[in-house]
Amino acid sequence: MNGKSEKKFLTDYRVNFGPDGNIISVEIGCCGQRIGELRYKDGARRSCPLCGCVHNLIIQHNHFHLRRMPPGESEA
């Protein structure tokens, strides 16, 4: 594998690191397009303008979650 993604996924997340190795942001792709970036902050969210799905970043003790929720679905 050469490190380049050749397949275009409907949903994609890319984690960006700073020079010190800490996570600084997460880029979001939805519906095959880049829709924006989340700063690495608990509760950050971005909505897809095409399908309405909400992408959430949830930071916990020693890990994080990226959740894609369909329109109208609330987080439990």
Kindly describe this structure:
The protein has no helices and six strands. It has 76 residues and is an all-beta fold. Strand 1 (11-17) and strand 2 (23-30) form a beta hairpin. It has one domain. It is globular and about 35 Å long. The chain starts with 10 loop residues before the first strand and ends in a 7-residue tail after the last strand. The chain has a three-stranded antiparallel β-sheet with strand order 1-2-3, with no helix packed on it. A three-stranded antiparallel β-sheet has the order 4-5-6, with no helix packed on it. It has strands at residues 11-17, 23-30, 33-39, 45-47, 54-59, 64-69.
How many domains?
1
Rough shape?
Answer: globular
Radius of gyration (CA) equals 13 Å
Structural class: mainly beta
Terminal-residue CA separation: 38 Å
Mean pLDDT: 88
* pLDDT < 50 stretches: none
Discrete helix count:
0
How would you write the strand order of the largest sheet? 1-2-3
Residue share in helix: under 10%
Largest sheet: 3 strands, antiparallel
| SSE string | EEEEEE
User: Count of DSSP E strands?
Assistant: 6
Query: Which band does the percent of strand residues land in?
Result: over 45%
Short description:
This protein has 76 residues and is mainly β.
Descriptors:
76 residues; mainly beta; 3-stranded antiparallel β-sheet; 6 strands; 0% helix
Write the layout of secondary structure elements.
Elements: E1 11-17, E2 23-30, E3 33-39, E4 45-47, E5 54-59, E6 64-69
Antiparallel strand pairs: 1-2, 2-3, 4-5, 5-6
